[in-house]
Design brief:
The protein is of the alpha+beta class and 136 residues long. Helices cover 23% and strands 38% of the residues. A hairpin with a 3-residue loop joins strand 6 and strand 7. The structure holds zinc ion.
Length: 136
């Protein structure tokens, strides 16, 4: 894995969290994007080589809404950049990690993504993401 691509933070309300994180990080939000399949609206901030991704649920039954119901707002996942997501998924599966999807899925910010079950990673939801090249 190359680097921490981003850290995902579950928030109740992007409209108040975006200005908060702009103030905190002293940088403007450079993109907001809805991922319909995941029922989330996301907002991105650059922090050096990494990013912060704020996640707001668009649906009370969505994964982020359920996460906040259970645990409250806060760090939701850590995403690692990988060169070849399918190869990395195969490596991790062979090593005994549980993948949450058999195939990579389209994620926010022009990525293919796959999550690992947090029960096999000390409670941390891990996201793999591969940059989709030449498609904007
Ligand atoms: Zn993410």
């Amino acid at each position: 894995m190359n680097k921490i691509e981003h850290i995902g933070i579950a928030v109740k309300d992007l409209s108040s969290s975006i200005p908060l994180y702009e103030l905190l990080l002293n940088t403007p939000c450079y993109k907001t994007e809805e991922v319909e399949t995941e029922k989330v609206r996301t907002a991105f901030f650059s922090v050096g080589d990494s990013k912060i991704e704020l996640l707001e649920s668009t649906d009370p039954s969505g994964v982020i809404a359920r996460y906040i119901d259970k645990k409250g707002e806060g760090v939701h996942h850590i995403a690692f950049a990988v060169e070849d997501i399918r190869a990395e998924m195969a490596r991790l599966q062979a090593a005994g990690f549980e993948l949450l999807s058999a195939e990579p899925k389209p994620g926010a910010d022009n990525k293919l993504v796959c999550f690992l079950h947090p029960k096999g990673t000390n409670g941390v939801l891990v996201e793999l993401c591969e940059e989709v090249k030449g498609e904007r």
